[in-house]
Each structure stands twice: as C-alpha cells, then as structure tokens.
Amino acid sequence: MWDFAQDVRLGELAAKVYENGGTIAAVCHGPSALLSAKLSDGSHLLTGRNVAGFSNDEEVAAGHAGYMPYFLETSLKEIGANYSKAPLWQEHVQVSGRLVTGQNPASAYGVAEQAVRVAAQTL
C-alpha cells in the first residue's frame, strides 16, 4: 500500500500485459498496484471496470485506519472503477473482461479460479 500505487513501473507492466491480451489478477490490497496503470490512450486500466479490493470498512475493522496512507476502496472509486464489496471478510470476486480482482484473503481462491478460466478463454 505504501509503494505499489506510486510505482509507475508496476502500472506500465500491468497495462502492457493487458493491452497484449493478457489476464490481470489481484486480490486484497493487490489492486493498489493497478492504480498507476494507464493504457496507451492515457486512460486508467481500471476506469469503468468492475473491481473489488480491500474495503474501507475492513481497514477500519482491522484497526488500520490512521496507519494506511490511503484507503484502497476510495482510491479505486476516485479513478472511476466500478467498485463493489461484500460484507466484512466475505469472499467477493469481480471479473471485468480480462481483469479479475478480489476483496480480501477470503477471495484469493476465487480470484485464482476465475483468472485461470479467463486466461483459458483467450488461448
């Protein structure tokens, strides 16, 4: 959370993989690495896409408020992602084209399962 969003190299890598037909998957705080991902037309990779990630409510419930440099849910919404979430600690996976994201650790298996399914469809 402290360095992923500001690491332009991660964003460039994700955008390049996506624009070359690859599947992108991230879970929990992982979508923070996609906050700097801009496509070749200058738009954010996540803008207009259905996305999940660690929720503001989960940050507060985990006692992270005041320690985290930003809330992922808020940042995803600010760049125009269609953020959605489940109740605290429940599995929640979003598939938006070749982008697969999950809300929290409970979502890891579902994200992996969907990422494999999506990737297999592009072969």
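That was protein one. Protein two is written in the same sequence-then-structure order:
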Amino acid sequence: MSKYQHKKKRNVDGIGSSFFGLLERGVERLFERVFRPKATFAVFSRGELTQLWQGMEAMEPRLAIIEADKLVDTVLKKAGVEGESFADRLRKVEKLVDRNIYNGMWEAHKARNELVHEINHSVDVSKSHVLLAKMKDFLTALGAFKND
C-alpha cells in the first residue's frame, strides 16, 4: 500500500467513526428527551395556588406585583430550577414557554424591581392587573395550575 492510500484510508476511518459518534450522541439526546422525567411546576396542593393568586389580586397594586413575583420565584424553586437569583431561574425556563409569555414575565419582573428599588415609584390598578395577568400566563404556561 502506498503512503497516499494509507492516509486516505485513515481519513475514511476518521469520517466513519465521527459519523457514528454523532449518530450515537443524537440517539442519546433523543432518548433523554423522551424518557427523562419532565420537571413539574404544579408544586402546590390542589387549589392552593389559585387561592394564593386570588389573595394577591385583592391586594393593593404595588404589593400585589411584589407578592406575585415572589410566588413565581417560589414555584421555580420548588420545581427544582437552579440559579442564584430569580433572573437566573427565569433564564433556565425560557425555552419552556412561548416567547411572548416569557417576555411578559420579564416585563412584570422589571416592574417589580422598579417598585422595590426606586423611591416613589408607583403603579396604577389597571397596569397592576396587566402585569399580574402576564405573571399568571407564565405560571399557566409552565403548568403550575395543573393541580387546581
């Protein structure tokens, strides 16, 4: 066998082994997606999340947004979503919900941050209802209300 033929054979073997390696990794990923246990966000007992949410909707608008934000974070923590901060946990679930719903949750979280960190920042009732609806849509998209 010539020097050229030997190199050519080695390249073919390299391509073949990398192809099968890619195929194997692809099958492993598919298997993990199909058979790995899905994270459950229904972390409260039957009716408890709805009851908590209704209580928040009756609160003063500023407090309602703050409490709803804390509740969303609690759901993420109880579901086992890791992260040092609420923002980190939100980023981890980005792919699990529709982009518009995810962006709405970020908008609500930013509004909460403004309420907490800025002096004399307030929110009116109608804006509060919009922000609460965005947070509830996010929890609903995750399946957090499935027990209710």
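The CA atoms of residues 115 and 121 lie 5 Å apart. Keep this in mind for the problem set.
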